[in-house]
């Protein structure tokens, strides 16, 4: 008897011509499949989300009209533990994008070996157009609508683009009201007074710094005296800049949405951070010279840290990069074409799925502290974060050496093997 056709290449709800970020993710999985050995038997499980929920989020606006917004929560994979991933409020969010982001969370969580699967959520809304009261109503209704999927042992949202600690507080409160008990562990990235964790705000930048030091150590690059260029001087870029400076490196160039600044002798990262907090950007900082935005990517430096937006290093500018190492603080800052150019030019790229995993690692600590209602000191948190990032990087580095692949492919190999091994050990239900 011929076997029934068991596998469709794409879910019926996706348009093969417009796969968006999900298409990039599928290519990444295809690229690592040859390295998965016997586990490749399970690889189809990575090519479709476990669950994708689309919800209608109606709210009453301040002027009395009713507005409807489209929301999503996608759980890509929960073989290794509950879903974990942020919630994005943005007018251009699509199901395909949330699916890809949820899949990248599966990879990131497995790469740093925290006991989570991958998930992500989003609402198609421009939150800047909402009043605070409207934003709260939107958050609460969205949380109620996805309430059947989320929970401290099921799926734990966190902040992402345009969501913050206040939004997490509203999500935690809404979920808690619905279940009839305070459930701090349902979201992470909460205010510290509501079960949030010390060290969470700096965690991603600290992770960027930690993997940078690990890679520098292995490639003979001295951090003391190294020249660093950073795009984005917000949470991630600003923290990384300060930590590299403390370790003896020099921040020589910074670009953000207000412009680019340069000083070959080194920019005072702490003073710049204060300036950014006071004025909203790097423009007008007295301790550096203005630089043309186009010159930023070709600046003389040893370490380049894109920590702002996706798609910044492209075919057009990757060839100009003089740095020996790129540490991806942002999600998806390097296009696949730029990745190849950097690799051909001998620039070591530390990929986002490991470099910016410090945030989710301290989110994991927040969740653990919420369960035990016992809160750690900032020093304990930072020490545990550094250890996890070092161990994770070490495993990825070893796989890259053994297979002679890039660190991005190596991270996918490590992560996909962990996910599929869990899948295999659990077996298929029923
Ligand atoms: N915060 C986290 O824990 C975390 C975790 C993982 C990944 N990330 C990623 O890191 C990146 C930065 O996040 P963040 O929390 O530091 O955000 P943030 O809002 O604190 O800072 C963003 C920075 O990007 C700059 N920027 C915005 N538009 C720009 C443009 N057109 N050109 C140059 N610079 C521009 C801003 O000026 C700002 O300095 C994002 O891609 C985010 O998804 C953040």
Automatic annotation (TrEMBL):
Identify the residues that the record assigns to the Glutamate/phenylalanine/leucine/valine/L-tryptophan dehydrogenase C-terminal domain, covering every copy: 197-427
Instruction: Provide an example Pfam family for this protein.
Output: ELFV_dehydrog
Which keywords annotate this record?
Oxidoreductase
Establish whether keyword Repressor is in the entry: no
Q: Which domain of life is it from?
A: Bacteria
Xref: SMART domains: ELFV_dehydrog
Family according to the record: Belongs to the Glu/Leu/Phe/Val dehydrogenases family.
* Protein's name in the database: Glutamate dehydrogenase
Q: Please name the source species.
A: Comamonas faecalis
